[in-house]
Automatic annotation (TrEMBL):
UniProt keyword terms in alphabetical order: Amino-acid transport, Cell membrane, Membrane, Transmembrane, Transmembrane helix, Transport
Protein name stated in the entry: Branched-chain amino acid transport system permease protein
Source organism per UniProt: Streptomonospora nanhaiensis
One Pfam family, short name: BPD_transp_2
InterPro entries, alphabetized: ABC_transp_permease (IPR001851), BCAA_transport_permease (IPR052157)
GO biological-process terms attached to the record: amino acid transport
Compartments, as annotated in UniProt: Cell membrane
Primary location recorded for the protein, binned into one broad class: membrane
Entry membrane topology: Multi-pass membrane protein
Signal peptide: none
Amino acid sequence: MNHFIDLTLSGLSSGAVYAALALSLVIIYQATRVVNFAQPALALISVYIAYTVSQATGSYWLGFGAALVTGLVLGAATERLLIRPVHGRSPLNAIIITLGLLLVLQGLAGMVWSNEPHSFSYPLDYRGRFSASDWFALGSVAAAALLLFALYRFTPLGLRMRAAAFHPEAARLSGVRVGLMLTTGWAIASLIGALAGMLAAPPFIFPNVLDAVFVYAIAAAVVGGLENPFGALVGGVLIGLCLSYVSGYAGPELTTLAALAILVLVLSVRPGGLFSRPTARKV
């Protein structure tokens, strides 16, 4: 029983990281119908900036703040400089751009910080059954989700962002600056991605450190539904728990296969994800 509880707690902690990265993917997909394959690279650069700031100042939390700001700026710059010019064209163009940006940024990280692993601190004490760092991961992701919900639900900015995402033409006619709202959405999504990177990176960072996390985050986003932020959060936790049980009872080498199996099973039953809404089709 103790082993089961340990695996559950571990799954909740890792699931929070998958949920945060999945949430960042869903925010962008909702607004632009683009799966941002560059998200782990944006988070990676943010983590490396945090590493540099922490090394220079000796403060983890200054580095943490620098990572969030970097994520915010990188997300806005990516949308404004790379995605906006191809907006309205084939979605494949934007996907290819994000894939290219992923490769460029990972290569750039290796050139600047080297491909060798660097030691990277946990935010808090990581020892114990459910450590302070695990509580911080759960709490920070929950706080980010609640703030995002409050932003979308109760603020004029959130209303304009939703209008720009779901009814861009009507929003434009109502005076909403749709382009600015899309840039804001990308910036917020990249900030949440940077948070996920800061939680997932320890104890070492290297250019491919977030690759596996990104695979599980995509699985979580698809399982929950690419158009449902709440589904992304639930999907992340489900993936985290399932992979923790598989790793603990069957072996860690089967976790990737288990994620694929979960993905195939869910898509077979609910192609749009567990929390997708039924859509009407014209015949």
